[in-house]
Amino acid sequence: MRESRRIFLLCLLTFWGKCSASEEIKGKPGDDVILQCLGPREGVIELLEWSKPDLNSEDYVLYFRDERFYENYQHPLFSGRVELRDQQMKDGDVSVILRNSNVNDTGKYECYVGYGGKPELITTITLKVTDSGGEAGNTNNGGDKDGHVGLIAGLSVAGLLVVIAVVVGLVIFRKR
């Protein structure tokens, strides 16, 4: 009986620990856009990597390691345009502000945080910078609905994983 509980808890923790958030935000050329990433509150952040995979480059949007930023690892497109929202990274806030966005900034961004081991993917953000005359750009400062899409999707995935873990736990429990 105890073994089945241990397996259930292990399954639950495994599913929960691998969950990362995904979000889509919109902006207009010239907007300052916040790419939000919240890592765990406890622990010292030893490594922070903001990357844009579709650049096909080894360079980063922002790279932080051993208590300092490495500008020589930063892709030239982002030089002088990216900064941490909270320089102290309090409560795991490793969000960045992308200044003066342009259509070339459109794409997927990934936030990896490391606490001593291999860095883990925390957030994936898809940024769409368009010059359309419609809706105002979402800089993630306001309360419009687009900023909540990632939260809703992340919570839905987390809820689904919890349900799967419960079902697996019940199947194991009934077999015993």
Kindly summarize this structure in a few lines:
This protein has 176 residues and is α+β, with helices and mostly antiparallel strands. The protein has helices at 2-17, 149-175; strands at residues 21-27, 33-35, 47-51, 62-65, 68-69, 82-84, 96-98, 107-114, 120-129.
Series of secondary-structure elements, N-terminal to C-terminal: HEEEEEEEEEH
Going by CATH, the architecture of the domain at 38-129 would be Sandwich
**Hey, roughly how much beta strand do the residues contain?**
25-35%
- How many strands, what sense, and barrel or not for the largest sheet? 6 strands, mixed
Look at the structure and name the CATH superfamily of the domain at 38-129.
Answer: Immunoglobulins
Low-confidence segments: 1-19, 134-149
Quaternary: single chain
Please provide the count of β strands: 9
Give the overall shape. globular
The CATH first-level class of the domain at 38-129 comes to Mainly Beta
InterPro entries: Ig-like_dom_sf, Ig-like_fold, Ig_sub, Ig_V-set, IgSF_BTN/MOG
Pfam families: V-set
Subcellular location: Membrane
Keywords: Immunoglobulin domain, Membrane, Signal, Transmembrane, Transmembrane helix
